[in-house]
Each structure stands twice: as C-alpha cells, then as structure tokens.
C-alpha cells in the first residue's frame, strides 16, 4: 500500500514537525542519522519536519524511541513534559 501524504499542513502535523526538529537539535543529530536509528526513510522524516505527511503509529513509535519519548510526548503541544534537563 503506498504512503498517503496530506496536501495541507494540519496543526498537529506542524506541531509534530517542530517537535522532531527540536529533539534533533537536542540530540545533535541529523535527519539522516535519525533515519538510520529509527528505520524511517529520511525523505519521510524531512516531510514530517516540514509539517506534512501522515505517519503511522509504528513510525511515531520508532521516532519517539530514538528520542527517549512516548508517542504522546512526541505529539504534545506543551514541551514541559519533554524537558528532562
């Protein structure tokens, strides 16, 4: 089954993209490194960071695992639950 991409950016996807970008910066890794660690295609990660896409739960779990987060934390609009400093 082909991957289906949303043509518009939803608020949830925009938040997910911002959260992925922030977590990448915190870990000091690139989207390519995230791809290698998570098994998610780099092109799909790039698309999500831009606020697009329609990731599966498995994709979200793979990304969250790399960041040491739950899926809920990865999607959350409030970053206080993710700040572990």
TrEMBL record:
Gene3D superfamilies: lambda repressor-like DNA-binding domains. Residues 20-74 form the HTH cro/C1-type domain. Keywords: DNA-binding. It comes from the Bacteria. The keyword DNA-binding applies. The keyword Repeat does not apply. One of its GO terms (cellular component) is cytosol. One of its GO terms (molecular function) is DNA-binding transcription factor activity. InterPro entries: Cro/C1-type_HTH (IPR001387), Lambda_DNA-bd_dom_sf (IPR010982), TransReg_Diox_bact_type (IPR050807). Transmembrane segments: none annotated. Signal peptide: none annotated. Pfam families: HTH_3 (PF01381). This is Transcriptional regulator with XRE-family HTH domain.
């Amino acid at each position: 089954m082909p991957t289906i991409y949303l043509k518009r950016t939803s608020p949830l996807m925009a938040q997910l993209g911002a959260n992925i970008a922030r977590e990448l910066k915190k870990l000091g890794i690139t989207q390519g490194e995230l791809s290698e660690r998570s098994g998610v295609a780099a092109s799909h990660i790039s698309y999500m960071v831009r606020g697009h896409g329609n990731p599966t739960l498995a994709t979200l779990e793979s990304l969250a695992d790399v960041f040491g987060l739950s899926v809920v934390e990865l999607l959350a609009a409030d970053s206080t639950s993710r700040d572990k400093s």
